[in-house]
Hints:
By secondary structure, chain A is mostly beta strands.
Amino acid sequence: MQFVHLHTCFLNRKAYKFFLTMKLTTLLLLAGCAIVSAKGFSQEVSINEKNVPVEKVFKEIRRQTGYTFVYTESLLRKAKKVSLTINNVPVETALDSCLHNQPLSYSILNQMVVIKVKDSQAQHSAAVPVSITGRIIDDQGEPLVGATIAEKGTTNGVATDENGNFTITVSGENTVLVISYVGYQNKEVVAGTQTNLTVQLMQLAQSLNEVVVIGYGTTTKGEVTGSIATISSKDFQKGVMTTPEQLIAGKIAGVSVTSNSGSPGAGSTIRIRGGASLNASNDPLIVIDGVPLTNTNIYGTSNPLNLINPNDIATFTVLKDASATAIYGSRASNGVILITTKKGKSGKPVFNFSTQLSVSRLIKQADVLTADEFRNYVDSVGTDEFQALMGDASTNWQDEIYKTAVGTDNNLSVSGSLKNTPYRISAGYLNQDGILNTDNLQRFSGGISVSPMLLDEHLKIDVNLKGAINDTRFANGAAVSNAAYFDPTQPVHADTPFGGYYEWYSVDAATGDVTLNKLAPRNPVALLDLYKNTSTVMRSYGNVQADYKFHFLPELRANLNLGYDVASGKGNIEVPAYAAQNYLDTGQHNQYSNQVNNTVVEFYLNYNKTFESIKSNINATGGYGYYNNLSTLDNYPYIRANGDTVPGSIPEFMFDQPQNRLLSFYGRLIYTYNSKYIVAASIRSDGSSRFSPDNRWGVFPSVAFTWRINQESFLINSKTLSDLKLRLSYGVTGNQDGIANYPYLGVYSTSDNSSMVQFGNTFYHMGTPAAYDAKIKWEQTATFNAGADYGFLDNRISGSIDVYFKKTKDLLNTIPIPAGSNFSSSILTNVGNIENKGVELAINLNPVRTNDISWDVNFNLAYNNSKITKLTATEDSTYAGTLVGGVQINSVGYSPYSFYVYHQQYDESGKPVEGVYVDVNEDGIINQNDLYRYQSPNPKYILGFSTQFSIKKWSLGTTIRANLDNYMYNGLATGASQSNMFNPLGYLANTLSEITESNFYYGQQNSDYFVQNASFLKMDNLTLTYDFGRIMNEKVGLRVSANCQNVFTVTQYTGIDPEIYSGLDYSLYPRPQIYSLNVNVQF
Amino acid sequence: MKQATTILKSSAMIAIVFFCACSKTLDLQPLNSNTSDKQYSTPEGYKEVLAKVYGSFSLVSSNGVAVSDINLAGITDAATTDFVRAYWNLQELTTDEDICAWNDVNLQSFHNLNWTSNNVLIAALYSRSLFQITVCNEFIRESTDEKLSSRNITGSDAENIRHYQAEARFIRAYQYWVLMDLFANPPFVTEDDPIGAYIPPQIERKDLFNYIESELMSMEAQLVLPMQNEYGRADQAAAWSLLARMYLNAEVYTGTPRYADAINYSEKVINAGFGLMPHYANLFMSDNNLNNPEIILPVAYDATNSQNYGGTTFLICSAHGTNAEDNKNAGIPGGGWLGNRSTKNLPLVFGDYSGDADKRAMFGMGTLEISNVLNFNEGLGVNKFSNVTSTGSTPYSPNGVLVSTDFPLFRLAEIYLIYIESVKRGGGGSESTALDYFNKLRERGYENSTGNVSSFTLTDVLNERQRELYWEGFRRTDLIRYDLFTSASYVWPWKAGASQGTGVDSHYQLFPSPSTDIISNTNLKQNPGY
């Protein structure tokens, strides 16, 4: 087969469609700043060249006119060098001059020049002309508008219309049709007698001309200066995706996405190159269609992102190094994720309907004693008193609380263009049960996107509106651990005062008073059945973005972006008075609600011009941003099940309105010399309402240098090397997210109604001074990045490699302060340093690419090492560090959240000896000074592997991930002690079968025995797709796929699941295995 | 190009206008809070802050039971930062009066006498005391005569606030006494020091002694007369009581005995009009705020309005288990926490500990001997504190756990005992008055004169203190004064982790400055041995 090297000037696929359907000026506006070399188009050409390859002339014509050239490398090798001196002539004249006496001819289709071999024989063919109609579609089955169908060896050719259809009359049945489209692999088919031909073109593996979204603009993949990775919808994770961030899990080197639980819609912990902070947020900034989202909590949802329908998302772009992120200044230290949503396409309305049915099931239960094992254990170890407590039932509590859950996800969209105004309207309905009984999420979502052109097409307006309503019932998560601990010899139901559920309680023989055994495990089934927490959450976000190209100065654009993100969450918790879970409070009838109201105003000017005389392009941007984040938190008293208000719980204030604002000024200059050397510099100054006027403004600069080595003359004609680019960048970013709103202000607040002080017979509210740090300011991260992007063999092998060093100083760090110096014992202040070093490697392979078979392989690897290098204002070797929770510590010289435990001693048989630990500091006493730092939950290596194999209409894909060198504290197993089983409170509790190994009498919570290697390899999904193509008279496209998620996990870790971000495994809502069937119809 | 320049210029102008207009928009204020000027603009505002001065030792925070003013890493239960609970842990868990079944390293190290500077329960008390001192400093700063007149607060309002200010100085002096007793050389901050980036100096124990003494003497006149203040607030007798207590221990603190001064100040209290509560048990019941002639200064709790899982809720709930009857009798139908009970030394100091003779012996369920520290059912329970009223009813509690019993910080019986011991230690006074006071306490305990004695030794005084004051937070200080705390000459079951008890190095007589403060306060020197 022949490898076709397509040279086009700048167009991505979408822009190209416009190219053929709209006027040139329209195109220019749309392509915006992506167009680097195509400014100042005219229909006339001037060329003054001596003895140059014809390709050089083509490029020059392209640059001056915007015309695209399509040709194969091999064709040009037949051409001689040319010398031309022409002034202001039409394109055709220029081409005629250039190809005069060459073995080449050309044809022009709209603004596309197709170069071909001059062939006189074709005209002598005796064949009977035939007319062929057909349709060209992409690998998603969507029509390709403006694809070229050319009769091979002739100048005869047509382009597809707005529905992808074409009609061509060719010289005979044996004619070969060459079908081409920018960014896609050419295809040749024999005309034959087919009058209704459907040809599918496959996208090229990597196109250097692919448009990449960057902050406040776009660029092409070839000219990107930072460490950026883009994933588009065809490469997303497949299957049941209730929340958007899951789409990219395992897909990008250095980006880890760890779902927080197996509950539908549960959030995830997203980390880009490890965390840069200790106490401020480590979440990346997420920007959807130019609207930065805040991490404001919305009541009634476990994850604000699950109000975004993943089906509306077109691309994820992850900005990793400072060159890419610094334009986002103070919110960029943890990386930036830019999300674009699907937009309208030109042409008649195309309806797309997809429906998915899924079945989820529990794959692994916590390894607890079965009823029989429990009986044996109690009989052999327990006293008579405890043996007598056992019941006759054999209950597997985990069977009782989990179920096989069914879910559906339905999405309908229509996109097209109305009077040259592209639009897309979408609606979605998701109904997903959790595998934990009673857990359910329903989402109704809708979206509208319209992109009209006004003012003689100088003004482009983009309107994106999205909204969703989630109705959720939250299961009581406490059921998970209680199912592990509840006595398996007891029945689910019994004649008790607790709604007929078995519970541990006693009755006073004399009075008949019932006393619930407070600390005993609760009946897990009752925890679910009697707990009704339902919420309705509405969220809408969107923006209007106006992009105006000045009439008198087309190089200058003004862009105004007005965005909003509003939400309202509310819900109720109902627990009957008789329920054991709220027995002491006699049930609850509580409500909660809040509202979020965030607004964004951004304005920037962009100036982009190429100066031919100095072979330079300048792309300058300067802008302003205003971000207001306001939420309203309603306060309610506690209400008992019978409607009574709990005394003392009436709130002092009906609501609170936390608010913060950010003001920003930013600028960026990208200078490109000779398409080879790119210097990019940006600066952003942010002012935050969180800091005092003296410390409010932070400045965040970056500079980057990029060398496109493959553009050098010694490589430009290389067949082997298709891309090679070196990148170097340095920048400073900031972080202020995830901290309180007013940390610098010394204010007094009034105490709650339950926190009053009695003087005489009156209770007084306390006027309470708040602790504050008047000097608190930005946390700053400096990032060095060196990277290379490479492509070989027509980009069939491509990828990138990056090395980075990130140093965060002035950490927003909660540290103990000198006692007596403030109204608190520790305070959030700027102390401490963290370093992250890492290497990222991405490889994309396209080993097979034929008409019928294609195979893609993507592999990524990230190594990251986080280390705290400074923690407190002063240093003292005796200071262990800042304890975090029970068994973790932040210490200088160690990874954040290292485990802080005793070193377990073992007997000769390898059994841990209870309470016997190593005297680590060898002072003869085993006390807190013998705790030591043992491993951390942070993986050293994160690997991702995706592959897709297609043969004709079948394709099979999978995503596999692995984390290496991450450790987990098996908190559930620490409960495996006899003192927990045989509780002096007079109840029995089940435990993990681990107890038969250790036989601990008391819980040894601080032993390193419970810290385990949790490295894992997971197959996230396996998808088989069959594409029927166009059916029903070519009117309908149909694709069916079957998917399995969470296919298998390989790990040594003994708990249910080795993947918990915190490294603490207490009661993870298990991630289910999901089987789904997806049908996609297009008409 | 000229046009472009014009555009850039005008954009810059727009940007500057934006900047100026919007910079102000970055000045945001929390909706439900006051600036200090607003807080102190009225007498009511002052009283609210006075409530925080007291609330700092009666509550864990201003925002309910689950959050704490003391937000130290490693503290997972806000209730452990409550003053009475944290103070009680250090004063009682380290002695023969209590042993706790909770399996937590920080807590068990008190019994084992092997705590380290990383012990968060020590840090909780240290930080609580200094937090309250900081609040007092702030109040004292804001209630000077100049500030009052600048805020146009005059007349009786100003007079009241002067009393408040003296009370804040008293509370500060009390907390400095706590720190002097437990840590010897704490950091020292007053109203003259700023809030924020300030590193307090360390003060020597004997300098602190002089400071507390001079403070108490100079504020005394500004305090309300004895028994004339609102319930829950300190009066002059409270200042005298603290002086008396401090003089009794002066030799420990400074090397110089001050028993004559102890006698002097205890007499002042005794003569101020306080009397013994007729029934000992009523002192520790949930209506002990009513008709109580004995309590000089309480820490007041209320199950509804002043909720706290430290304080007396801790003392009562941790002393009971799962026996419904027992819990009901203690006024906590919501159930006990299975923690604290006594080592046998405590009941045995009564001889007959049934309570039939000396009614002060109020022991509950459990065994005398303890083979397993972590078994709540071993060791006699202590029923001294109760949430039942003197008339036998149980007051309202939202969950049957929170209690309304007040904790006596100073009461007359202790003042008698200070007088008695000071006389015995040669401070002067009257032997016969001392004997009279001694028998007064025993008569109240026995509710008749069968327990009366005709003479007593210094050791008898210590034992009488234990019988009278057990579980009220005195024991460690008393044992140190008698040099019995760390030495092997007096042991109790599980002292220093040994089942029969054993001695430890004397450096455990002082607690270490918490490592968190050693690291953040570069002026601090750690106590020897840590």
